[in-house]
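[Meeting: bench + compute handoff]

Bench side (C.D.) handed over the final construct sequence. Compute side (W.E.) agreed to return the predicted structure before the next meeting so the bench team could plan truncations. Sequence as handed over:
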Amino acid sequence: MPSVTHDDAPPLADLMPWSVAPPRLGRGWPTGPEPASLKARWDALLKAEGPDRETLFEPSRARTLHTAVAQLPGRSAGTERLARASGPCPDPVRVLAAPFDEQWLIPDHRLIDAARPELWRVADEHQIFVLEAPDAPLLVTSLVPLLRPARIRPLYRRPGGQEPNLAPGLLEHLGHSPDPVDFLAWTLAAARPDTTVPLTRDPGLWARGVERGRRILWLLRRDGARPKLPGGRRPYVRAPLPAFPHTLHYDPEEEALHLDEGRISPVPPQAWDFAVGGAKVLEQWFATRTAPAEPGTLRAIRPTTWPQAWTSELLELITVLALLSELRPQQEETPLTDPVTAADLREAGVLPPPDSARHPATVLDHHEEGPEGQFALL
């Protein structure tokens, strides 16, 4: 959807009222681009004793080896204090660590300064998280997002895709599809840089926006069928990557991405130039996997050779960025037919949303383990 000229579009913060700040880790080593290193870091932490374990842990004001915290909702990590913890590493889970960068996290509340339990309580296969960050387009993900600074707006307030996080009465007032995912698709297609969302009663315009937004949603979530560029435009490894590349260079004439002497092509210039918040996505993705770590820290435990999985992820990322660049909004403004304004929504009683809609729903259908094995009350 192109941008529109109408000036009374409602803000996303009113249309999706409940938001959560992203988790604040407090230390970088519980996350990484592949899970085996995380398990090795955990093992190294637990093998260390006394002051050595304290140093490796990297304590903060919020977390030390002696901090007592409840279990992370929906996860099975232990709750005994880390100073005397033992046992295997909790299974790492996929998270969105940076724009378009899916990594792994040890889902242990004892390792995370501010985990945002209310976020984890609603994280399941039905959930879609909308990420609203300064100077960046809206992003969505099915994974728990760690991006900072941002506001996270879950599409659903309860597990199982229950209770949409939308202003009460909004979908009924618009009169289009009752499916919250369709509203999210429209939002991705129509939202402005200031995160206001032009709305319309025009069924044809709405359908076109939803169709385009559904494709954006599919590319951003990267679930289901894998995206592909047309034949002849698909990126392949043309020269083998070295054991562990250290430099990244783009040749616009060849449309080739060079990882040391390795080469991937074709890589459209739109994919190479694709940036979020002023940072090129491909450069940031590569730097995260190759930047040196301080010796003697847990972050220094990492792959010594370039995993094949990273190559596959890079090829898919190039594809996603190329396809998304074709869907980015056109710059020229076009009229919004039959608009629904913020004033209309206020007159209908849809806005402002009730204060309760800005707070998390109470979740009472399961127990959560508190510190030292006690049950937490919700």
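W.E. noted at the follow-up: The two ends are 42 Å apart (CA to CA). C.D. will use this when planning the next construct.
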